Amino acid sequence: MADLVYCILDTETTDLAKGTVQPYICQIAAVKFTREANIGVFNSLVDPEIPANQWSKEAMEITGIGPEEVEDADPTMTVLYKFAKFMVGVDHLGAYNLPFDIAVISAELQRQGLEYRFPWAPMQYDVATIAESYISSRELVQAVTGKRGVKQPKLEEAFKFCFDQPMEDAHDALADVWATVRVYRHIMGWSQIPE
Prior knowledge:
Nucleotidyltransferase, domain 5; 5-stranded mixed β-sheet; 7 strands
């Protein structure tokens, strides 16, 4: 039996999600791997082809990505086409807060009338939910305790909990993907793979 292929993805966007209106993607990254090895990396800035005044200052401060950083990037549909080719053969798709990433990718596809033509993996999981369960089952739950008890940890908190060191370069899609891969592999009890 062939090894299952896993993929962790992350997107960075031009704004924060507000209700049912989804922001535009400005970076997308993913890592494909098996239990034993890294088998592929995808990382691309994305030109969302929107006016500069539609970019949120808050999102630009968080990601460090603005109109100037993507002016030479491929447009959204070109990047999503390349990403779809990268996704072919993936058995398990995950992300840290997967519902957000699925929603923004789906919104971009829907804007082009292509929402039903993306090769989504048959198995999908939210690593944030897995991390929450993992951390809450440990003795040191105070590491991510909020006002109402154990809360779903941010990626930086889950990383610190798992590795007792701070995460670097948060909110760069590729750095977030590698951190999520490490957290997921740690929780699963798998050995780490080099980047």
